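Our preliminary data section would be incomplete without showing what the modeling component actually yields. Below, a chain of 79 amino acids is followed by its predicted structure, encoded as C-alpha cells that our downstream tools consume directly.
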Amino acid sequence: SSEAPIPPPIIPSIILENLPTFNSAFCFEKRLRSLETSFSEYRQTNPFADAVSAIPADLSEMELKKILIEKMEGNKSIQ
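Predicted structure:
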C-alpha cells in the first residue's frame, strides 16, 4: 500500500525570525578578527617572517653580482 507523503511541519514565522544566524551562532566575525589579530602578531614577532620577505631582494642582488662578474670576466678575455 502506498502512503501519502508526510508534509513538512509548518514553522511559525516568529520562530524563523528568532533563529540565530550563522554569524551569531558561531561568533564568526569575532573569531575572524581574533585570527587576523593573532596572525598579525605572529608576523611581527616571528624572526623568520622578515627573513623570508628579504629572500627575493637577496636573490636579485646575487643575480646582479653574478651578471657583473660574468661581464668583467668576459671583458678580461677580450683584452
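Residues 4 and 10 are 17 Å apart (CA to CA). Residues 54-79 form one domain. Preliminary results of this kind motivate Aim 1 of the renewal.
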